[in-house]
């Protein structure tokens, strides 16, 4: 349950800007660089999640340290892949436990 609210895309770009201290232009730039992926309403309004806000803060901190957007994108892809691997392991463990299977 805790994770479900975190991933709901319900926050407008203006609120994200207030929460992160980033300008609207910076937020749009990170979207253009494929670092963040807001959903769009029928009218084209961007909607972000709390997880997106955390990602943007992390991106901003890394940019302040001099990390390039390309490097950040590579790191985000790597993290996403690791998350999928962890999820697969967890599911495999649950299936094995449920059906009393061993590796």
From TrEMBL:
<keyword id="KW-0238">DNA-binding</keyword>
<dbReference type="InterPro" id="IPR009061">
    <property type="entry name" value="DNA-bd_dom_put_sf"/>
</dbReference>
<protein>
    <submittedName>
        <fullName>MerR family transcriptional regulator</fullName>
    </submittedName>
</protein>
<dbReference type="Pfam" id="PF13411">
    <property type="entry name" value="MerR_1"/>
</dbReference>
<keyword id="KW-0678">Repressor</keyword>
<dbReference type="InterPro" id="IPR000551">
    <property type="entry name" value="MerR-type_HTH_dom"/>
</dbReference>
<feature type="domain" description="HTH merR-type">
    <location>
        <begin position="10"/>
        <end position="78"/>
    </location>
</feature>
<dbReference type="InterPro" id="IPR047057">
    <property type="entry name" value="MerR_fam"/>
</dbReference>
<keyword id="KW-0805">Transcription regulation</keyword>
<keyword id="KW-0804">Transcription</keyword>
């Amino acid at each position: 349950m805790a994770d479900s609210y975190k991933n709901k895309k319900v926050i407008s770009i203006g609120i994200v800007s207030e929460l992160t201290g980033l300008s609207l232009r910076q937020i749009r730039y990170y979207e253009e660089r494929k670092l963040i992926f807001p959903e769009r309403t029928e009218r084209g309004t961007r909607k972000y999640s709390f997880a997106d806000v955390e990602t943007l803060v992390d991106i901003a901190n890394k940019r302040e340290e001099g990390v390039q957007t390309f490097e950040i994108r590579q790191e985000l892809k790597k993290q996403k892949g690791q998350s999928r691997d962890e999820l697969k392991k967890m599911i495999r463990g649950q299936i094995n436990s449920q059906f009393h299977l061993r590796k």
